[in-house]
């Protein structure tokens, strides 16, 4: 059971409204399963994905293991004992170097990944944010190989093609999640 409960997320949901829901369930490859199982071994069954936007650009990251041209919106985990908002701010700073302000909670993805017939429940909480500045300087340089501002159209177009062509169910999940975030942000009335 995850320590990121409805009670922990409640202050953010009260502030911004209940998020739209999406199910990104899918079958994992061996490589994908290894990544997820490293997280679940630490009793982590969630991530917080933060869409830091400035005009038509968003911050994206790449990790050392990503194939050429693969980028995604940053994400991380809330530590045991941390508030949801504090954990999001900490993760954003570690991955981008930015100080951010939360601006919305548009989407929650409640998914079941399956691997060799075993279900792995996973929840992705999507938070929108704005940054105090634009200078990117990731703190966790072992995990983050690159961090840039990217036009949303590039993320949803050419980058999505790279993610989907990779053969990774988790990259496919991220491409679909980016699409779902964009749909939620541009079609949802806050608080509904």
How would you describe the overall organization of this protein?
The chain is α/β, with parallel strands linked by helices. Helix content is 35%, strand content 30%. The protein is built from 5 helices and 8 strands; from the N terminus they run H-E-E-H-E-E-E-H-E-E-E-H-H. The chain has helices at 6-16, 30-40, 84-96, 152-165, 169-187, and strands spanning 20-22, 26-27, 46-54, 57-62, 75-76, 100-115, 118-131, 146-151. The longest helix has 19 residues, at 169-187. It is globular and about 45 Å long.
Task: Please supply descriptive tags for the structure shown above.
8-stranded mixed beta sheet; single chain; disordered C terminus; alpha/beta; 192 residues
Question: Short description, anyone?
Answer:
With 192 residues, this protein is α/β, with parallel strands linked by helices.
Order of helices and strands: HEEHEEEHEEEHH
The counted number of beta strands is 8
Rg over CA atoms = 16 Å
- Main pleated-sheet profile: 8 strands, mixed
Oligomer: single chain
Given helix and strand content, the structural type is: alpha/beta
Low-confidence stretches: 188-192
Into which percentage range does the β-strand content fall? Answer: 25-35%
Secondary structure layout:
Blueprint (H helix, E strand, L loop, with lengths): L5 H11 L3 E3 L3 E2 L2 H11 L5 E9 L2 E6 L12 E2 L7 H13 L3 E16 L2 E14 L14 E6 H14 L3 H19 L5
Parallel strand pairs: 1-6, 2-6, 3-7
Antiparallel strand pairs: 3-4, 3-5, 4-8, 6-7
Helix pairs in contact: 4-5
């Amino acid at each position: 059971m995850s320590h990121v409960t409805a009670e922990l997320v409640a202050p953010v949901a009260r502030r911004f409204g209940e998020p739209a829901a999406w199910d990104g369930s899918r079958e994992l490859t061996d490589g994908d399963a290894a990544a997820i199982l490293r997280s679940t071994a630490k009793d982590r069954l969630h991530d917080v994905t933060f869409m830091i936007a400035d005009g038509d650009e968003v911050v994206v990251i790449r990790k050392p293991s990503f194939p050429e041209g693969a980028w995604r919106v940053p994400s991380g985990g809330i530590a045991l004992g941390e508030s949801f908002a504090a954990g999001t701010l900490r993760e954003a700073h570690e991955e981008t170097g930015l100080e951010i302000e939360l601006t919305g909670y548009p989407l929650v993805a409640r998914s079941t990944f399956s691997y060799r017939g075993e279900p792995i429940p996973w929840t992705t909480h999507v938070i929108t944010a704005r940054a105090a500045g634009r200078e990117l300087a990731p703190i966790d340089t072992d995990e983050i190989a690159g961090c840039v501002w990217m036009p949303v159209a590039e993320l949803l177009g050419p980058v999505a093609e790279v993610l989907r062509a990779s053969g990774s169910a988790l990259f496919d999940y991220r491409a679909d999640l980016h699409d779902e975030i964009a749909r939620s942000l541009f079609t949802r009335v806050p608080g509904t």
